[in-house]
């Protein structure tokens, strides 16, 4: 990954965007990591991986006996009603 300063980004924006199309570019300000610029297709790929991960986790939870959304709502409503009566 290429690293540039925020000043470099300001002064060479076009060149750095072109670089980011090929590989992620880390932007630092005062020696601190601030942002990463990456190609839009790569960003979409990462978002899809994250979505796939959470879908797999939800499927795994359902398979292991976690309550469904409807069951959770029924139990929460019953609990709310019992607390409200106290």
Describe this structure in words.
With 86 residues, the chain is α+β, with helices and mostly antiparallel strands. The chain is built from 4 helices and 3 strands, in the order βααββαα. A hairpin with a 2-residue loop joins strand 2 and strand 3. It is elongated, with a radius of gyration of 23 Å. The N and C termini lie far apart (60 Å). 3% of the residues are buried.
What kind of sheet is the major sheet? 3 strands, mixed
What separation lies between the terminal Cα atoms? Answer: 60 Å
Q: Kindly name the structural category.
A: alpha+beta
* Record field, number of beta strands: 3
The percent of residues in helical segments reads 55-70%
Overall number of structural domains: 2
C-alpha-based Rg, rounded = 23 Å
Portion in beta strands: 15-25%
In short:
The protein is an alpha+beta fold and 86 residues long.
Layout of strands and helices, then pairs:
Blueprint: E1 2-5, H1 6-11, H2 13-22, E2 25-29, E3 32-37, H3 40-63, H4 69-85
Parallel strand pairs: 1-2
Antiparallel strand pairs: 2-3
List the main descriptive attributes of the protein structure presented here.
3 strands, three-stranded mixed sheet, elongated, 86 residues, alpha+beta, YefM-like fold, single chain, 17% strand
């Amino acid at each position: 990954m290429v690293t540039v300063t925020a000043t470099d980004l300001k002064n060479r924006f076009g060149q750095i965007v072109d670089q980011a199309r090929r590989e992620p570019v880390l932007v630092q300000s005062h020696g601190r990591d601030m942002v990463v610029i990456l190609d839009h297709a790569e960003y979409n790929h990462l978002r899809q991986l994250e979505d796939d991960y959470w879908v797999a986790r939800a499927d795994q939870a359902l398979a292991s006996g976690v309550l469904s959304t409807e069951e959770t709502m029924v139990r929460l409503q019953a609990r709310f009603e019992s607390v409200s009566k106290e």
